[in-house]
Each structure stands twice: as C-alpha cells, then as structure tokens.
Amino acid sequence: MSIDEKTYGELREIAARYPEGRSGLLPMLHLVQSAEGRITPEGIEACAEILGITAAEVSGVATFYTMYKRKPVGDYHVGVCTNTLCAVMGGDAIFERLKGHLDVGNDETTDDGKITLEHVECNAACDYAPVMMVNWEFMDNMTPERAVEVVDDLREGRDVHSTRGPRVCTWREAERVLAGFPDDLADEGPAAGPASLVGLGIARERGWTAPGREAGGAPAPAIGRDQSAEQADTARAGTEEKIDESPADLQHDRNPAKGEDAQ
Length: 263
Ligand code: FES
Prior knowledge:
Blueprint: H1 5-16, H2 25-36, H3 41-51, H4 55-64, E1 76-81, H5 84-102, E2 108-109, E3 115-120, E4 132-134, E5 137-139, H6 144-156, H7 171-178, H8 194-206, H9 225-245, H10 247-253
Parallel strand pairs: 1-3
Antiparallel strand pairs: 1-4, 2-3, 4-5
Bound molecules: FE2/S2 (inorganic) cluster.
FE2/S2 (inorganic) cluster binds next to helix 5.
C-alpha cells in the first residue's frame, strides 16, 4: 500500500523548504513516522522518489539514527536516560522498575500498544538527572515511583505535563512537530529550569559576554572560512606560546570563574 496523498504532498512541501531537497530527508522521515507509526518501505520509497535518490540511500539514513523506528511505536515513547550521570543518580533503577511494571524489555511496546520503553542516551539535561523523556519532552528529577505514576497516567489517558515543556501529546503528534509542522504548544509550560540558567545568571552578574561580542553591542561581523581558520591558527599559536612561557600564567587567564579575571 502506498503512502497517502496528503502525506505525500507534505513530504514534497518539506523537501521544497531546502535549497537542496535532500537536506529535508530527516524531517521527511519524521513525517513518515507520524503518518505511518514507523518507517515503512512505502515511506522510504516516497522519500526516495521525491528527492531523486535511491531507496537504499534513504534506508541508510533511517537505519543510522535511533530516533527512526522500523517497528511500530506505542502511543507514548518513554525514554529513560541510562548514560553515566543519570544511571548513577537513579536512571538504572527507573529503567528496571518500568521494565517490571510494564512487563516489556528495551525497545518493546506494552500489549495495549500504549507505551514503548527504551534506554536513551544523554539528553544534555544532566543538571536534572535522572531524566526521563516522554515523546522527547523532559521529565526531570525522576524517581522510580514517579516514573510509574507517569506511565500509569499515560495509559489511563490522564493529562501529563512535562517538567520543562508543554502537556505531553502522542508520539505521532510529536513526530509531526519534529517534521516541522508546529502544534503551537511550544509556549505552554516552563521552557528552562533554574539549574540550567545558573551559568547565565553568573555571567550577567559579572558582565561576561560571549567572545566577539561586547556587552549590549552588536555581534562581531561575520567572517569567511579562510579568515576564521587564520584566526584559529593565530589563537592556537598564541596559546602554545603561553604554555611554553608560563603554564601558571595560562592557568590564571583561563580561570575567571575562580575570580582570576583574564588579563
Ligand atoms: S546523562 Fe542523562 S541527561 Fe545527561
């Protein structure tokens, strides 16, 4: 069975957003997942046809990234971060508890088709470890008990809210957003938590700005690739010189956080 007409039209729409249509392949694959519940052979064919590349090339991308699924995903994808920091902070315990509670293994879906459980890699949310994701929305500072409550609420159809984002939608709806069709929920719920903003607060307090930008001023003018490489070489050479001359001076320059302002 081929992909439906509406989805085919939207796949073309995504490809048309890019100067090189092929650049749209990742969001196109998310749209296939939204429409089909997984990456299907028909979805692969449709992407290949629209982009003028082979099905093998599309398949190569779809099988490389773990966010693309070859088997059906449940209504809610629950990812438990079990990378080092989350693991030691309780991620392993959360995963084990959910595995037992849901009676599924890694990358498996419950019998009612509601929840797919998966180990996930670091979500750059380590300041709120252990972290769980529901359809890629953050659930911070999780505990095994809270994780069980979340999956039970999802299975019972009760509203679940991300700790740093909107109310949780279904996996297919989230895939549509990842394909570039907003659901207008982006402003619902808090966007960033206090722990993530601590560095920003300290920088403001001390008047630190990003390199190449004066406080309150315009950004540094854009430079070409050659100039940029030249600047990087000059900076590296300067650093190497400093190491040769005095490692203690260099240390002093590089630790403004300890009150040792660069001179
Ligand atoms: S280790 Fe879990 S979010 Fe970074």
